[in-house]
Amino acid sequence: MPIDAARALGAAPLVREIAWDHRDVLLYHLGIGAGPPATDPRELRYTLESRLRVLPSFATVAGGGPPGVIGALSVPGVDVDLARVLHGGQRLRVHRPVPVRGRARAASRITAVYDKGTAAVLVLRTEATDADGPLWTDEAEVFVRGEGGWGGERGPSGRPGPAPAGAPDEVAERAVREDQALLYRLSGDWNPLHADPEFAARAGYERPVLHGLCTYGAALKAVVDTLLDGDAGRVREYGARFAGVVYPGETLRVRMWRAAAGPDGCGSVRAEVGVRERDDAVVLADTVVRYV
Question: In order of start, what are the domains of the chain with their CATH numbers?
Answer without folding.
Answer: 5-291 (3.10.129.10)
